[in-house]
Write a structure and sequence with these properties.
The chain is α/β, with parallel strands linked by helices and 468 residues long. It is built from 16 helices and 14 strands. The two termini are 19 Å apart. The structure holds guanosine-5'-diphosphate.
Length: 468
Amino acid sequence: MFYQETIAAIATSSKNGSISVLRISGEKACETVSRIFFNKQGETIDLCSCETHTIHYGFIKNEKKELLDEVLVLLMKAPRSYTAEDVVEIHCHGGSFICQMILNLLIQEGVRMAEPGEFTKRAFLNGRIDLSQAEAVMDVIQSKSRIALENSLTQLRGDVKEKIRALREMILQDIAFLEAALDDPEHISLENFSDTMKEHTGTLRQEVAHLLKNSQNGRLIREGIRTVIAGKPNVGKSSFLNCILRENRAIVTDIPGTTRDTLEEEMMIGSTLLHLIDTAGIRDTEDTIEGIGIDKAKTAIGEADLVLCLLDTSVPLTKEDAYVLEETKNLPGVILLNKSDLEPAWKPEEMQDKFLSDENLQERKIIFFSAKTGEGLPELEEYLESLLIQEKISYNDELYITNARQKQALVDTAESLKQLAQSIEAGMPEDLYSIDLYNAYEALGKIVGETVEDDIVDKIFKEFCMGK
Ligand code: GDP
């Protein structure tokens, strides 16, 4: 065990609910709670002598024996607990005031207030979970869609840990063989070792490349599909956003910290999270296509996974429409012929002749739409769902590394393996291989937390919520 101190925190949300949970972890968890926990007869309940994984009914009283609350106490003794230490949970009546009083009482009794994420950090430092699992805990809490949740649970189960362990094991065996051969050249021959290494490196590179490719989908799963709504001013972008969100009102969330220039909203299409970005900045420009709004829109387009291009059918097509299509031509997307409730000023063929020479654009689905009447909305949703689920995110039982830190470690691993492959190809001496092998081994270790520095570990856990 790394810690002696016993810590406590309120584990439930600060809003009033029907119950609240306080969590206490550490060597003194049982004896501390025992001092403030009484049965109906007013006798103390000695949790230290109770069986693990039991629930106890009783009352919390302060030092003057005044009643604070009627509670249930859950006992989970080391090592079979969340932190692998003795853990006691006090389930009291909901209400932040009661909870705070009990927490204050525990602190008076010598327990320290836990830092955010400290329970999970202890689970990690006590070896119960690895870093990929610890990060999955946070992802589970923050999951915004069923797919994201399933993915985080897979990671929490330890699938990433197992995969990385297997890859590291492969590398370690090569390192061991190489070191042994260099130490004892008389008995261990390195003949043909380059060929073996070439094969091993090829396999490792494939595996890492596959994980990296999946991590792109991982981001989509976790953060949603970044979907830009593009179009010249007045084409109906804001109306479109309102229209699509109104249908999904119950699951719309505002995203804090968004700028006034791009309006961002989230919604679900089927089981996929769509992160919609209205490039409202374009509105700020005059009739030229230069300006700050354009830069912001360009940035949004550069980071997008999908684009919904709006064209106004009630006014003639302009060079701005051409500009919008040109700028977004490399993204998958949909062309929405908006305001189709009004008298059309042009026919779709005209657009095709004028603008759709690029083959990427020819592949785009074209939908007659009206942000005013909602025409085309079911068709759009159906199309998006099929596009997102079946083609863009072929979600299955694969591993999706969703975390940016873990992804960077994969990128570093891939780089070391690439250098290794180059050394082998160039016929470099075998002792040089071990440097790249070590680097790849270390980089992979960062994912599971075996080779990360303490300050990075601290930073990761600080992002957690209180009581977790
Ligand atoms: P934005 O500048 O692209 O965000 O465009 P707005 O959403 O502000 O819409 C510009 C104008 O077009 C507003 O007066 C809307 O009411 C109108 N508008 C938008 N969509 C439609 C539509 O489908 N049909 C009709 N008739 N008017 C629309």
